[in-house]
Amino acid sequence: MADLPSGVSQRDVADLLGLSVSTVSRALSDNDRVSDLTKRAVRDAARTLAASRTAVSRDTAVTPARPMIGLINSGLSNDRSPQSLDVNFAEVLSGVEQACARAGHIPYPWQESWRLLTDEGNGFFSHVTGIITVGGVISPEVIDTVQRQGLPVVIVGAQYPGSGITSVGSDNTTGTLLAVRHLVAQGHSKIALINGPGATHTSHEKLAGYLLGLAEAGIPLQPELIRSRDGELSFDETAGDAMATQVLGLPEPPTAIICAFDQFVTGVYRAASRMGIAIPGDLSVVGFHDDDAARFAIPPVTTIHVRRTQWGETAVDLLLRLREPSAIRGTHTLIPVHLVERESTGPPRASPDGYRQQ
Fold it and tell me: Which InterPro entries match (predicted)?
C-alpha cells in the first residue's frame, strides 16, 4: 500500500474528494476495482493536503515566500453521500496543483462543508492570497462571504453574470450543438435533452446549444423532449433514470437522448434496459464530460470531452493576473470541447414506430 504523507489521513483525503475511506484505501493499494482517475485523484489530494498543512503550520499568516491559493469545493455539503469520486473537483484539483507548482504557490483546500464558510472566524481566509471555487451551483451566501474578504476570486465550472466575479468553464453551448449535429448526421430528428438544474447558467448554455442545433437542422422544437431537475441538485444515475423514463414513456418517444452529464447516462441505460430498449439499436445516447462512466459503460458512450484539468490551470493563471492593479474582473474564459464518438450512437430504426415495433 502506498504511504500517505505525514499528517494526512485516509479520512482527510476521503472528505476532500467526496469518497468513502474504503475507496481511498483501495486506491492506495492499487486495487483493480478503482479507476486510474480515482487513484490519481487520491495521490493529488494527499500531496496537496500535506503541502498546505506544512505551510500553515509554519506561517500564522500569508507571507510572500509561501503564497497559498484557497480552493473551495462547492460540491461538499453536510448531507452529501461519499459513494463516488467528485470527478469535477478531482480533475480541477490536478490542474490547480500543476499550475501552482509552476507559479511557486500552494493550493490550500477548504475541507469542510461549504455551508460553514459563512463563519468568517474560521481563519481560512487569513492564510490565502486568492480563492478558487469549483462547482456549478454555489450558495449566494458563500459568494457574498468570499467577496467580502477583498481577495481575488475565480469560479470554475460556472459563471455568475453581473456578479463581477471572474470565471472559467467549458464551451457548453458548442458542446450540445456538436451533440445535436452528430445525431442529425446519423439520421435522428426526435432528440431529447436531459438537462441539469434549470436555474444554473451551465444548464442554460447547454439548452442554448441544443436549441441552436435543432434550428440549424430545421427540426421543430418539441418541449416535451426537454427535461431538467428543477428544484433538485442531483446529477446522478437516479436522476437520469427518472428523466429518461419520462421521455421514453411518451406516446412518441425520442430516438436519441443527449445527457447534460455523464452521470445521467448510467440512469438512461438502466431505464432503457428495464423498458426493453436496445442501445444503440433502438436509442442513441450522447453524454457530456467524458468521465470514466462514459468510457467504461457497455456500450461505451459517445460524449463531449471536457478538459477540466485545464479549468484548474486556467483558474490559477486568471487568479494571479487579478492581483495586478490593471486587471479586468468579471470575465468568463471558455475552454474548447470536442465530441468523442464511441458505440452508443447510430442511425435510428427504419420502422416509423422505432422500438415500439418490438
Answer: HTH_LacI, LacI/GalR-like_sensor, Lambda_DNA-bd_dom_sf, Peripla_BP_I
CA distance 104 to 57: 18
- Output the pLDDT for position 142: 74
Collapse the DSSP code of 287 into the 3-class scheme (helix H, G, I; strand E, B; otherwise coil) and give the result.
strand
What pLDDT does 67 receive? 85
Contact between residue 142 and residue 117 where contact means Cβ atoms under 8 Å apart: yes
Task: Give the CA angle between residues 94, 100, 105 to the nearest 5°.
Answer: 140
Q: At what angle do helices 308-322 and 87-103 cross, to 10 degrees?
A: 50
Query: Contact at 8 Å (CB) between 253 and 358?
Result: no
pLDDT value, residue 352: 47
DSSP code at position 326: T
Provide the 3-class DSSP secondary structure of residue 300: coil
> What b-and-e string marks burial along 48-80, b requiring 16 or more CB atoms within 10 Å of the CB?
bbbbbbebbeeeeebeeebbbbbbbbbbbeeee
Domains of the chain, residue spans? 10-151, 172-306+339-357
Phi, psi of 19 (to 5 degrees): -115, 165
Across 103-125, b (16+ Cβ under 10 Å) vs e yields: eebbbbbbbeebeebeeeeeebb
302-305 and 338-340: which strand pairing? Answer: antiparallel
Closest C-alpha to 85, from 308, 263, 220, 271: 263
The kind and range of the H/E element at 191 are strand 191-194
> What does the radius of gyration of the chain's CA atoms come to, in whole angstroms?
21
Tell which wins on pLDDT, 198 or 214. Answer: 214
pLDDT tens, residue by residue, 221-277: 999 999 997 655 566 788 899 999 999 999 999 999 999 999 899 999 999 999 999
Cα end-to-end span (Å), the chain: 51
Q: d(Cα 12, Cα 175) in Å, to the nearest integer? A: 35
Taking the C-alpha atoms of residue 238 and residue 240, their distance in angstroms, rounded to an integer, is 5
Is 76 within 8 Å of 32 (Cβ atoms)?
no
339 — pLDDT class (breaks 50, 70, 90): very high
Considering the domain 172-306+339-357 in this protein, what is its CATH number? 3.40.50.2300
